[in-house]
Amino acid sequence: MGYKILRKDNIDSLLRELRSKYLVYLPSAQSGSTCLTSNEPSLLKATSGNTRLSAKEMTFPQIELLLAYEYKKNLEDPFKPTSIEVKTDLEYEKKLIFGARPCDVKAIMLFDNVYSGGEFKDPYFNKRKENAVFITIGCAIPLATCFCTSVGCGPFDETCSDVIMTPLDEDNSFLAKSLSPVGEEILSMNQFSTADEKQIARSEEMAKKAEAGIERIDLSGIKEKLLANFEDPIWEDLSSACLNCGICTYLCPTCHCFNITDDRFGLAGERIRSWDACMFPPFTLEASGHNPRSTRDKRFKNRFNHKFSYYPQNFNEFLCTGCGRCIAACPVGIDIREVLKRNMER
Amino acid sequence: MNDQLHENPYKPETVRVKRVINETPNIKSFELIFENPDRMKTFFYMPGQVAQLSIYGFGESTFGFASSPTRKDHMLFSVMNIGENTAAIHELREGDRLGFRGPLGNWFPVKEMKGKHIYIIGGGIGMAPLRSLLVYLLDNKKDYGSIQLLYGCKTPGDICYLDDRKEWECCDDLDVVLTIDNEYPGWDKRVGFVPAVLKEIAPNPKNSFAVTCGPPIMIKYVLEELEKLGFKPEQIITTLEKRMKCGIGKCGRCGIGNKYVCVDGPVFSLAQLKELPNDL
What we know:
The complex is a heterodimer of chains A (346) and B (280).
Chain A: E1 3-7, H1 11-19, E2 23-27, E3 36-37, E4 63-72, E5 83-87, E6 95-100, H2 102-115, H3 123-130, E7 132-137, E8 163-168, E9 173-178, H4 181-187, E10 192-194, H5 197-212, H6 222-228, H7 234-239, H8 247-251, E11 258-265, E12 268-275, H9 296-315, H10 325-329, H11 336-345
Parallel strand pairs in A: 2-6, 6-7, 7-8
Antiparallel strand pairs in A: 1-9, 1-10, 2-3, 4-5, 4-12, 8-9, 11-12
Chain B: H1 3-7, E1 13-24, E2 27-34, H2 37-42, E3 50-55, E4 59-64, E5 75-80, H3 84-90, E6 97-104, E7 117-123, H4 127-139, E8 147-153, H5 162-170, E9 174-180, E10 190-191, H6 194-201, E11 208-213, H7 216-228, E12 236-239, E13 255-256, E14 259-260, E15 267-269, H8 270-274
Parallel strand pairs in B: 7-8, 7-11, 8-9, 9-10, 11-12
Antiparallel strand pairs in B: 1-2, 1-6, 2-5, 3-4, 3-6, 12-15, 13-14
Helix pairs in contact in B: 6-7
């Protein structure tokens, strides 16, 4: 598909125009908070590092309304049965996410395997995904915690993006490549100008360099290895520092587990879903009091096994994009790469 | 196919309580019907499948059908009062409405079981999905060999489905063995834990299937005992319980290895379980 040049001076005017059609999300530049936000005026921080929170909340909000209910009592005749009205609302605004990272956007495909696969499709996720446009910025300077190339992703991965951009700093521009009909349409806006061969070659060069700069770990056979190591005492050692705080799952762009709870206000209320994590004991606690993952090491182990063995058995991909957020944020310094390497050595 | 369930699998249908049966001090059974009688006629499920029952404002929990699809007058669910939602379900009276999502999950291999002798081994509330199977087998008796039921409870007062016992005990094709954990005044049937009684009655593995459900610890020893009796892992069927939320394989809660109990189960053969990590 086509290449275009977007001069940085034109970004503000482009954003103004896009805002008339979409709710535009940008990486926030407020200090102490680096998430994607819809009230950020300009694209300041988009070219360095990752946002602290991943882009998963664009299609899978932390808290989401599944349905609203109301019990209707018959006040005239209290002996008549109470009826229940249940309402669902799947009308979401059109979103455009400008400046997300390729790894975060690829995570949508990994979500999709679960949320659109099998007998039942998840209408909430799917509607949000349909309503979202992703303009991704490739990572010219990967972070020390990045390991995307080891898990089937990369600093310029194009999966699920509508447009991918490469920063060409010496031209004070981005090279933009359209990857979908919507992306094509955006690139036809008059803020974009023609790209020349040299610029395309330079961007390819940059992608290669970025890829080469990322540490690779050999994960061939990890799927079987983890199953074989299920009862291995190594897990006690690996998990000994873990606090089960759940920050790794919270920041992870691919952790897709959730809880469903009801809120009630008198006779009416809401059923909501919210992010949940296998790090927490109540996640698997059964009504009888039995808990299959009653200890810390069992919960810890599940996180790695799900991402690198169970999910790959079903979908032939790792449930990880190598963004490195869990490494950077872990309060006790647990490094997912080390956990995997130690398992590979067993 | 259940179209509403496929359009939005999180949105329950509304069902009505037709009758409440007080089974034991902490178990009630609920006969449920759809508001629309046509829906009742066309609604289809299989023994072993589950449904989510919700009391709005309290939550949603998973229960196995205790009724058989061969009897279409109502669906039956047996609920032990053990948490917030089940306590709210226990408050339901005849005529009350509640949310219903189902059927979900897989079912007992009733096709493969055809022509075989069937041993059903249940403990406590674990009898609920087995009742569905038992009634189904009795209603299709000509397709199956002999049927034996071993059903164990803590005390005589914990035994469910007293109404059915009359039908079951008079039935020539069905041998019922009841057991309780400890001696009890007036109890003239067997005494002992289910795995121990199973060893005593020693069912013959030849040309048969054994199906079990009960508390996790009972299942564990029953599976071991069945293997000792010579049953092959493919002949041993169990239905699992796990904490569930969505019931459609998305929320990630009921995973064992690469399987989810809600969509790949709840029914598994021991042969299948042996392939999975020990995460029960």
